[in-house]
Design brief:
The complex is a heterodimer. By secondary structure, chain A is of the alpha+beta class. Chain A has a domain of 110 residues. Chain A contains 13 helices and eight strands. Chain A has a four-stranded mixed β-sheet. In chain A, strands 2-3-7-6 form a four-stranded antiparallel β-sheet, with no helix packed on it. Chain B is an alpha+beta fold. A four-stranded mixed β-sheet of chain B has the order 1-4-5-8. A four-stranded antiparallel β-sheet of chain B has the order 2-3-7-6, with no helix packed on it. The mean pLDDT of chain B is 97. The chains are: A alpha+beta, B alpha+beta. The interface between A and B is large, with 54 and 48 residues. Bound molecules: flavin-adenine dinucleotide. Flavin-adenine dinucleotide sits at the interface of chains A and B.
């Protein structure tokens, strides 16, 4: 199909099927059955095998018609893309649909108190006992765990193999007695991440993904999607027009819950969009030093966007690896966020001592200044991205390792 | 001019440091920052009465200790390290310096001793906290009646008296108002750094006592003195962040080794050490310049900018090198991060200070 045909096809399908008077679940079932929930997915699993560009076109038509799309908020997309890429057919059949309809929410159970950057150092233990995996251990910084029905879990199944080889990847039900979620408060006052304690938590044997001992390869798939996601914008198209009808109400309610942990995410990106309006509003736009810094910021931000578009094109042509491009985008996002915070500080001056609704941009500037430090940590730190870029993109010699040999003999944090 | 600390000064630092280690641990900081008042009056009394810190820089003839900017700097530096919560900066540093720079003799004699003893808490009401050039635009005095608003006043909520700089038309005057006087409205504001409380202060035709004349020279002098004290506070905080962060990198293990063994982190810490050393040496030098009345005329702005950048770099590294834990509320690093951010813009952003530095340097070069 060419672009016009796609627009026409989705448009007429929406004319025939979309109505705001259904329940959200009813509508999303129709949407999934119609094949328009995830058009870039393969045909045998709810999609149409479209390119990202074609999928974006579909999403535009949804926006124009005021139609609600598939559920997208939170880490569920990471789970979906991973299951799609590495899962068995049974897993795809079981899990993908409720992700699209929004029936099931997900979280990412990777980081542990003792292993963050060194994800492959995970020491949460999974043992196969009587045909079920029994999981014991602790995860941390788990965003959205308090809303999640399922989690993608990295756990150790073999302690005698070298660390990357002893890991396995599971899909775990969060709503069971063996899983306890405790919220963690952040320096910006929000509590979007959690500690997750697993005590004899159970995973059915068929919910191991990618095979025993292949956890690291599966995790790499998840991480590459995650890092790419940092460079892309999070907001799905805002729906236009008056939003009257049951679907809208239920959609708003879904978003309110699902987006609760993410209200500050635009702020951690530095709110580049507010820089010029704020400079004009405060008169700082006349300050030659501020002008220089704004120009520097906009140049960085444009450069990163253009480079990522170019990488995306190469990727589509099948010539580029995903992870390095993702790492550059992730690193760029944090450099840009820091420069934006710097410029906001210059523009705001002494008023940046304030926070809350009566402060600059109704508190958004203050929240930006104390949220930006997260972007260079979450999803893999700047230092780790630089290592990946140096070693995998530039092909520089690898760091000498001191964590080879059986996992149980490697030096670890004691706590 | 002095180039190093005397033995007495080193002892003084030891005493202050020991006191604060005892009275201002982070548990106390966290507890106080969540209270309405934001400070512990008993500790403030000890700090002023027993240690004499509130009057460190105030001459003996006005009831102070008779030390100078160097000792005041020592006290501020240690307070910055321990994030001391109390009216020291507002009352002793800001109001104290403004009074010494611009008040008439009888008012100095009346006000300074009570401030030096910590019995009176004063604060300086400036209608602009960015640059001395902008002071006097929002508060006016007509026949000693004050009108207008200052939107950012440190510790006004606990101040007994307000020392106000207001415009009289052509000039600036120094005024004294009781904080409970009729027509004074003090409203607490939500702050980025909960260890430094701010309020807005509004004057609706308030009868005030005129206590001095403020010239651009005296205003800039007080501004400089306040900035040098603030720079001390900032390098104290930066040093704490550097120390605690380096410690953390020695303990935390990833990839089978302490993270401090990764060159990326070593280099960042080494750069930071260099920056902290430069900012501290320059800041100590600035205090000696003020003390001796000589040295680079732009030194105050230079060190305010250096200390601001250094503190923010230390704060960013402090969080980054701790990873996820550094971004949590439970970890203490954010307390210093917020103080660093708030201090960066308090009394002028680094870029305004570098501009001011160059203006002063240019004027002085032309004169010669
Ligand atoms: C807002 C937020 C949301 C998050 N959400 C999730 C989530 O949903 N699920 C999840 O699993 N995790 C999540 N994380 C965790 C995040 O992925 C980890 O915090 C991150 O990977 C760093 O790990 P760490 O915190 O253990 O720090 P550490 O790994 O201990 O790092 C400490 C410091 O050491 C440096 N360092 C470590 N190794 C090297 C090296 N080889 N070379 C140079 N420097 C090195 C790091 O760069 C860092 O500066 C989240 C984190 C944040 C801040």
């Amino acid at each position: 199909m060419n672009n016009d045909e796609i627009r026409k096809a989705v448009g007429s399908w929406l004319d025939d099927n979309w109505s705001a008077d259904m329940s959200l679940v009813e509508w999303r079932d129709i949407l999934v059955d119609g094949g328009w929930a995830a058009p870039h997915w393969p045909e045998e699993f709810f999609g149409r095998g479209f390119t990202q560009e074609q999928a974006a076109l579909v999403s535009d038509v949804f926006t124009e018609k005021g139609a609600v799309g598939a559920a997208h908020a939170g880490p569920r997309r990471l789970a979906a893309e991973t299951i799609l890429a590495q899962g068995s057919d049974t897993q795809k059949k079981r899990y993908l649909r409720p992700i699209l309809t929004g029936k099931e929410a997900w979280c990412q159970l990777f980081s542990e108190p003792g292993s963050g950057s060194d994800l492959a150092g995970a020491s949460t233990k999974a043992e196969l006992i009587d045909g079920r995996w029994i999981v014991n251990g602790q995860k941390v910084w788990t965003t959205s765990a308090h809303h999640a029905d399922y989690g993608i879990l990295l756990a150790r199944t073999d302690w005698d193999l070298p660390k990357h080889q002893g890991l396995s990847y599971f899909l775990i039900n969060m709503r069971q007695p063996g899983v306890e979620v405790r919220p963690l408060r952040q320096m910006n006052g929000h509590a979007s991440f959690n500690e997750v304690f697993m005590t004899d938590a159970e995973v059915p044997s068929e919910d191991l993904i990618g095979g025993q001992g292949n956890g690291w390869a599966v995790a790499a798939t998840t991480l590459s999607f995650e890092r790419r996601g940092f460079a892309l914008s999070r907001s799905a198209g805002e729906i236009k027009g008056a939003k009257v009808g049951r679907v809208y109400d239920e959609y708003e309610a879904e978003l309110a819950v699902a987006n609760e942990p993410y209200t500050w995410y635009p702020q951690r990106q530095g709110r580049v969009d507010l820089v010029v309006p704020r400079a004009i509003e405060t008169g700082a736009i006349k300050d030659p030093q501020v002008r220089q810094e704004i120009a520097r910021l906009i140049s960085m931000s444009k450069g990163a966007r253009l480079a990522s578009a170019a990488a995306e094109q190469k990727r589509r042509a099948g010539t580029n690896e995903i992870i390095p491009a993702g790492s550059i985008g992730k690193l760029a996002a944090s450099v840009i966020a820091r420069q934006a915070a710097h410029v906001h500080t210059m523009i705001t001056g002494a008023d940046a001592m304030l926070s809350g609704p009566d402060s600059a941009a109704q508190g958004i500037i203050a929240e930006t200044l104390i949220s930006v430090p997260a972007i260079s940590i979450a999803g893999g730190t700047d230092e780790i991205q630089r290592n990946i870029i140096a070693e995998r993109v530039l092909g520089m010699p690898k760091e000498l390792r001191s964590d080879t040999g059986p996992f149980r003999d490697i030096k670890r944090n004691t706590s | 001019m002095q180039t190093e600390f005397t033995e007495d000064q080193q002892q003084f630092r030891e005493i202050v440091s020991r006191f604060l280690r005892d009275k201002s641990p982070t548990s106390a900081v966290r507890q106080l920052m969540a209270t309405e008042q934001g400070f512990d009056p008993a500790v403030w009394q000890q700090l002023s009465g027993e240690l004499g810190l509130a009057g460190a820089h105030i001459p003996e003839s006005y009831g102070g200790f008779g030390f100078g900017p160097v000792e005041l700097g020592i006290a501020a530096e240690e307070m910055g390290r321990y994030l001391y919560c109390g009216p020291f900066f507002a009352s002793s540093v800001m109001a104290g310096y403004a009074l010494m720079a611009a008040a008439f003799e009888p008012q100095k004699e009346k006000l300074l001793p009570a401030i030096a003893r910590g019995e009176t808490i004063a604060t300086l009401v400036l209608d602009d906290l960015n640059s001395p050039d902008r002071v006097g635009h929002a508060i006016s005095a007509v026949d000693d009646i004050l009108s207008g608003i200052a939107s950012l006043v440190v510790d006004a909520h606990i101040a007994d008296v307000l020392v106000v700089i207001a415009s009289t038309g052509e000039d600036l005057g120094l005024y004294l108002v009781d904080s409970s006087a009729e027509g004074v409205v003090i409203e607490k504001r939500e702050v980025l750094d909960p260890t430094r409380k701010l309020s807005s202060v509004r004057f609706a035709e308030v009868k005030a006592e005129k206590i001095g004349e403020v010239s651009m020279v005296s205003l800039n002098q007080a501004w400089d003195q306040i900035c040098v004290a603030l720079a001390h506070e900032m390098i104290g905080g930066a040093q704490y962040l550097l120390d605690s962060t380096v410690e953390y990198t020695k303990m935390r293990v990833q990839f089978g080794r302490p993270i401090g063994s990764f060159q990326a982190l070593k280099h960042r810490c080494a750069d930071l050490l260099m920056e902290v050393e430069f900012a501290r040496a320059a800041t100590h030098h600035a205090a000696r310049c003020l003390d001796a009345g000589e040295g680079e005329p732009y030194i105050a702005s230079m060190v305010k900018a250096m200390a601001s950048d250094t503190y923010m770099n230390a704060a960013r590294a402090g969080i980054q090198l701790r990873g996820g834990i550094g971004f949590t509320w439970e970890n203490d690093t954010h307390l210093w991060f917020k103080r660093a951010k708030s201090s960066e813009v308090f009394m002028g952003t680094p870029h305004l200070h570098r501009e001011r530095m160059m203006t002063i340097m240019e004027a002085n070069t032309n004169e010669q």
